[in-house]
């Protein structure tokens, strides 16, 4: 491990913590590209204990970022997993050292398509190498090395974050004591690829996308990206949740206007979601991170047999699905569980009842909360982590 | 564990006695994980569980047990051959949709299968049906006919016949009276079938003919 060598530059400023790996230390991608230098933006919560055995890596989903808990400095809202991360919460910051980093290809401080390409001194745009989930995980492992941590007590995350969890467990089994892949799949389904393609085509169809060179031309494909977000957002909810929350209710009016205004509350809601999203997310980044998910097929790297990815693993797994999640349905989680069982892994699996769809993993779901807490506490006992609160 | 005539799970101690220390155990229908925990503490087993209820799985996970949500009918088929030394199905066989298939899978997954079930041949059950003309309701079978999960009840005799059909060997069998005490081993089958409220069997695959 090369801790804090001259090649790595640590910064802590208004943009949060970052570490930059020099040109020699950059990331070689699965697609044959190179990202060098490589900057990773990350946040930490809680304290690393003396023998560095209490570190948890949280992997964010498609449009998440390193700000898992507390107030997000850009949006002013709470972090994406504030329901689960904090003092006394399941990912207890009084007890564990929580690390969360922005994925490579992202747009919240880690190197991505909006970063400057050292070769051209212009934003990468589509010259940024297409990255995979494995590339994201490889970059995270560089960060974990940099922090001087050998074994992570737990790697956890939902959706695209769950894919990273699975990749961590497959690529670095000795470094992952326990793993929580949540609302995720070991491969992206045709339906998931289809929805992502709709989103990407919406971005590319916006005249302001300019072949990906919009940053140099001082414009942004906001309309296209907003439409991408609107369509994706529907897939994160469920029919029941939409019905309960919106039904056919009208927006601030008593009768339809016979126009294309946002008459219905659901229309207004989606438009708002689209607008809020474009303020914080880079359109090209959206193309790259959706692509990374599409290429994910963990079994393919192991001769098509998922069980081989987890052969003789010592990692303790807790797989969680939500029954109304139709984007990453329970059957996807069951496939993971079957593969782990086939390898004799220590695995727990629970399907949480919720009508909130895929997004349920981000919300306060008491049963999910209880499962996570129980799993982590029993893993902590097995790891010999002292409960400092007692 | 305390032997309580009102506790329908007094078979747990009897089952635990059948398990060799340090072995790999799969408990199908493990409930809140009581048996797995008992086996981990007293026999140092490497235990796994399958449980249908979300609350049961949560309780197990909180105890540090590795339990997946599922049931004997749908999930056993996905386990590889010979993954375990013992596959346990305690007080669940009668609630499965396909008991024969469940047993067959258990004997495929584990070198041994341990099955406990309420005996429908017990005299109390027989008299309720024969004398009163009513579907039996007993301490072991506490639900009335219309809301019972027990859809495939059998007697000890029926079970022994099924084991034979599956080509398995009974390594050990015990009929338990209402206090969970085993009935004398040298008693004939018909005594077991009449006096046993519950039965516990340790099954083995029949050794291949040489």
In short:
With 390 residues, chain A is of the alpha/beta class. Chain A has helices spanning 133-146, 160-171, 190-205, 222-236, 239-245, 265-280, 283-294, 306-309, 330-342, 366-383, and strands at 8-13, 16-21, 27-28, 34-35, 38-45, 55-59, 85-86, 91-92, 97-101, 116-117, 122-123, 152-158, 176-182, 316-322, 346-352.
Description:
The complex is a heterodimer of chains A (390) and B (210). Chain A has helices at 133-146, 160-171, 190-205, 222-236, 239-245, 265-280, 283-294, 306-309, 330-342, 366-383; strands spanning 8-13, 16-21, 27-28, 34-35, 38-45, 55-59, 85-86, 91-92, 97-101, 116-117, 122-123, 152-158, 176-182, 316-322, 346-352. Chain A is an alpha/beta fold and 390 residues long. Chain A folds into two domains: 8-188 and 296-383, Alpha/Beta hydrolase fold, catalytic domain (Rossmann fold, 3-Layer(aba) Sandwich), CATH 3.40.50.1820; 192-291, Rna Polymerase Sigma Factor, Chain: A (Orthogonal Bundle), CATH 1.10.1740.110. In chain A, helix 3 (190-205) runs antiparallel to helix 4 (222-236). The radius of gyration of chain A is 21 Å and the shape is globular. Chain A starts with 7 loop residues before the first strand and ends in a 7-residue tail after the last helix. The relative contact order of chain A is 0.13. Residues 1-6 of chain A have low confidence and may be disordered. Chain B has helices at 12-18, 34-43, 54-62, 72-75, 99-109, 123-132, 156-165, 189-195; strands at 24-28, 46-51, 66-69, 84-90, 110-118, 168-176, 198-205. Chain B has a seven-stranded mixed beta sheet, with helices on both faces. The interface between A and B is medium-sized, with 28 and 21 residues.
